[in-house]
């Protein structure tokens, strides 16, 4: 999930690592299952779950903001044990053969510093680099005119951040996010993943959109299946726990079966709901309405956590997102994805208190 307008986009709707309270256990690819390549030093399967919140950046200096220490303390106070950072490069057109930094790309120095601050605050870190397009264009539409050139550029981009992840001791890394237009190229992605493993030894995932994950054929080269879990849960705005539970029940059944087939646990690399009326009908939208609906957001948080709690194949969730940076928010906080200061934050505190 990235932001609307110049700094953000709305995720398009198409048709329709692992951590204990004080520690981390990661699933190595194929260990215990006989599937996939692995590194001998990587731990075997775990059963703990990520409790995470994303702190994205929209400007090169965001992660050096005076607000950063306060935000990290606020994330930690929810009971979260992980934070995700999202340095972002851009390309102007969906057909471009490369990506580049802009003034909206977090500086490398600021990323290194905020990882250090997160660790000092008692949080584990996932670095999840993004590639975005201008305005409301969806990164899933990226289809470069020269795929070989694009993937060569992408390997340079992603291994740059793999080096930062290794150098800062980040506990997990995502090799890509919601790139449905190119994620079908299994051979190219396998080469990307191999290149990343040459730079970084920790657990790897890819963050597929909820309507993309079944089309990915390189999961066994990774440690976790990552899904950005923006499934619509209702046709009309609702706070009804029974209705939300029924919606998740059918999704949960499919995910459990998929996890078993792939011999990988599933991490919700993103999940979130704006505090707007109708957020359960379109969780991927920043602008589903102009009417605040804190109760609907809180009900959606509660339903997701209740629905997946205790499922051993489920590796946890990293919520999208904490507070926006001062001066950068294009959605008022009272309507935005942040749970901070809303009933949804109290849901997290209750569920994550133990």
TrEMBL record:
Residues 28-51 are annotated as: Disordered. It comes from the Bacteria. This is GTA TIM-barrel-like domain-containing protein. PROSITE patterns: PROKAR_LIPOPROTEIN. InterPro entries: GH, GH113. SUPFAM superfamilies: (Trans)glycosidases (SSF51445).
């Amino acid at each position: 999930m990235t932001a609307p307008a110049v700094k953000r986009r709305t995720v398009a709707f198409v048709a329709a690592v692992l951590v204990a309270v004080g520690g981390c256990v990661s699933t190595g690819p194929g260990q215990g299952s006989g599937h996939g390549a692995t590194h001998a030093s990587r731990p075997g399967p775990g059963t703990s779950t990520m409790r995470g919140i994303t702190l994205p950046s929209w400007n090169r200096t965001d992660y050096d903001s005076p607000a950063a220490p306060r935000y990290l303390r606020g994330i930690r106070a929810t009971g979260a044990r992980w934070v995700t950072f999202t340095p972002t490069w851009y390309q102007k057109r969906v057909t471009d053969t490369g990506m580049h930094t802009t003034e909206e790309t977090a500086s490398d120095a600021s990323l290194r510093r905020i990882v250090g601050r997160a660790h000092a605050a008692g949080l584990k870190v996932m670095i999840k680099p993004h590639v975005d397009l201008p305005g409301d264009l969806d990164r899933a539409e990226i289809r470069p005119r020269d795929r070989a050139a694009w993937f060569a550029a992408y390997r340079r981009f992603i291994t740059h951040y793999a080096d930062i992840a290794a150098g800062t001791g980040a506990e997990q890394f995502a090799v890509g996010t919601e790139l449905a237009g190119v994620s079908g190229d299994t051979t190219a992605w396998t080469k990307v993943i191999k290149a990343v493993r040459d730079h970084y030894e920790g657990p790897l995932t890819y963050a597929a959109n909820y309507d993309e994950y079944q089309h990915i054929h390189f999961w066994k080269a990774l440690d976790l299946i990552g899904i950005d879990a923006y499934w619509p849960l209702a046709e009309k705005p609702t706070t009804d726990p029974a209705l939300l539970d029924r919606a998740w029940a059918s999704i949960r059944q499919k995910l459990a079966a998929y996890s078993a087939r792939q011999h990988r646990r599933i991490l919700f690399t993103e999940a979130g709901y704006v505090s707007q009326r109708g957020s359960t009908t379109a969780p991927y939208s920043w602008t589903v309405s102009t009417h605040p609906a804190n109760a609907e957001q809180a009900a959606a948080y509660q339903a997701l956590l209740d629905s997946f709690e205790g499922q051993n194949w489920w590796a946890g969730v990293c919520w999208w997102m904490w507070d926006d940076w001062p001066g950068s928010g294009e959605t008022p906080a009272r309507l935005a994805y942040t749970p901070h200061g809303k009933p949804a934050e109290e849901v997290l505190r209750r569920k994550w208190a133990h």
